[in-house]
Structures are given as C-alpha cells and as structure tokens.
Amino acid sequence: MKLDPFYLIVDSAEWIARLVPLGVKLVQLRIKDMEEIALRAEISRAKSICASAGCTLVINDYWQLAIEEGCDFVHLGQEDLAEADLSAIRRAGLRLGLSTHDHSELATALDANPDYVALGPVYQTILKKMRWEPQGLERLAEWKQCVGPRPLVAIGGLNPERLAGVFRHGADSAAVVTDIICNADPEARTREWLEATAPWR
Ligand SMILES: Cc1ncc(COP(=O)(O)OP(=O)(O)O)c(N)n1
Ligand SMILES: Cc1nc(C(=O)O)sc1CCOP(=O)(O)O
Ligand SMILES: [Mg+2]
After folding, report:
1. Which of 6, 8, 9 to mutate to test the pocket of ligand 2 (most atoms within 8 A of CB)?
2. How far is the CA of 175 from the centre of ligand 2 (A)?
C-alpha cells in the first residue's frame, strides 16, 4: 500500500471542508472529548467530503464508530490498540495505522500487522505533552529497516523545511497538525505542504 507523502491531521470536519479541496489526499480526523452523536455527525461529514475529493480518511481512536459509519481506515495508539478488537476491525475491512514510540511498542505494533507504522515525535511537538524525547532522524532510518514493506509515517514537529530530512531517512509520509492549523493562513500553508511533498508523491 502506498500512502500520500502529506498526511494532514485535523480535529473537525470543518477543517476537512476547508483544506481537503485544496488537493489533500490523506487526512486524519482526530477528535478528543466529543459526545457520540456529534462525533458521528463529524465522521459522516468528513467521510462525504473526502469521498467527493478522492481523499483517504483515517479516523483516530474511534474504531467502533468508524466501522459503524462505514469508514475504511483507523489510526490507533498503543493504549487504543490494547482495548481494540482487532478481529472486528479486520472483519470490517478497515485498514489500520499504529503509533510507535519505542522498540517495545514497535514489536507490539508489528504483531498486529498494521497497514502503516507511525513513529513520533520525530521533533518536539507543541500539540500534546509526550513521555518521549524527540526521536530524531536516525531513529526514523532504523524504523524503516524494521517495518518491512509497509509505509512509515513520521509525526511530531514537522514543517516544510524538515520534510527533505524525514523522507531521506525513510519516512513515506509526513503527518502534521499545528504547522498548518496554527498558521496565520492555513490554506496557503497547506499549498506549501502540497508543493513541498510533490517530489515524493
Ligand atoms: C499518524 C499518527 N501518528 C500518531 C498518532 C498518535 O496516536 P495516539 O498515540 O493514539 O495519540 P492520540 O493522537 O490519540 O492522542 C496519530 N494520531 N496519528
Ligand atoms: C498526535 C501526535 N502523536 C504523536 C506521536 O508521537 O505519536 S506526535 C503528535 C502531534 C503532532 O502534531 P504536530 O504536527 O503539531 O507536532
Ligand atoms: Mg489514540
């Protein structure tokens, strides 16, 4: 499976409506703390925008809702994975991306035979407090040797200036939150990302 080199992560369907039509081909809906009815509405709207735009939609965390809403890709962290029903996810035909932050998590992730592995935080992130120091580029290169043919996603502190480094060190896709949504002009920044990732598309 090939992943687009630009992996946008946002926390609402409204962001998806704003940014995906610019040409984004891989987006994650990462919503925290929302009640189920509203969450379902967000997923359903995101799904319909992505279907029209030919963009792959990944649902973070909520694998049961993803199945029920007919989505086809979920991202889970290690705590999410520990509580998830992998057989149900596979039975429903969902593709699965998994987070990793150290060797033990990588071993757990590979046991689950995911469709991609994410490594983070490659650089310091301001989005959330993390237990891990920045992994650095050499760690990405090491992960690339371990994950086999499946794509490797780099996440954490990325911006267009850091892309060449992460791709040179083995990342297949670069995931981003704050560099885009906290930018004064998120649409212009999204276009910069699209252009900066074009050589790897
Ligand atoms: C592409 C990608 N990589 C890592 C994460 C982090 O997932 P997780 O560790 O479950 O943390 P939360 O995002 O749920 O806070 C991700 N979402 N996407
Ligand atoms: C959600 C998330 N997960 C990470 C991990 O390392 O698993 S880093 C991260 C935040 C990514 O946001 P930004 O691009 O703003 O740094
Ligand atoms: Mg999670």
Report:
1. 9
2. 8
Reply yes or no: is the peptide bond before residue 21 cis, omega within 30 of 0.
Answer: no
Domain layout of the chain by residue ranges: 6-200
Pair of tokens at residue 32: 């925290």
CATH of domain 6-200: 3.20.20.70
* Local confidence band at 190 (pLDDT 50, 70, 90 cut-offs): very high
Q: Quick one: pLDDT at residue 175?
A: 98
Q: Model confidence at 182, in pLDDT bands (50, 70, 90)?
A: very high
Backbone angles phi, psi at 175, to 5 degrees: -100, 145
Residues having CB within 6 Å of any atom of ligand 2: 99, 101, 120-121, 125, 127-128, 130, 155-158, 176-179
Residue found under tokens 């946002």? 10
